[in-house]
# Entry
Amino acid sequence: MREVLRPLISADEIAKRVDELASEIKRDHKDNSITLICILKGGVIFMVDLSRKLDMPVEFDFMDISSYGDDVVSSGIIKIDKDLSNPITGKHVILVEDIIDTGQTLSHIYNHLKEQEPASIKVCTLLLKRERWEVQDVPPDYVGFEIPNDFVVGYGLDYAQRYRNLDYIGVLEFVEG
Ligand code: IMP
Ligand code: MG
# Structure
């Protein structure tokens, strides 16, 4: 099987949308400093680019998780490998995700963060696969792009740890030969 990449969202389109999302976030958090929380590793590039468009006090924190099950279907069993470095109690938090697929990861992390009683939690996802979205208890506040039910890579997203460094998002297809 050969891997073929079909461009879906260009670097320019991403940059323009990141600008727009940053404006929305600034408008909603006028007088507050915010903590951006990134789920490693897929959300890293998005969070860094987004943060550079936010001219306001911003802190970073990171979580790392693993989910069990086969590669295609999420099992819904999620283990936290690295938790936050700093407490978020009383803080205004934005959870930054690369993609909402089934929504299981988001739901789990959101509820975990809520236990610490932050002042507010908003969810910002670069991509949303609406057709695949099952666990909808946490609707995202900011969505970059809604995409069809294809496997995508680039701009942080990987296939077997590769393609994260692409500056655009592409659909990865597997063809014979
Ligand atoms: P969920 O829990 O099913 O919403 O899965 C979310 C996680 O699955 C994302 O954070 C990604 O790591 C991974 N994922 C889902 N769809 C894709 C895709 O199209 N490309 C790369 N990773 C994906
Ligand atoms: Mg991920």
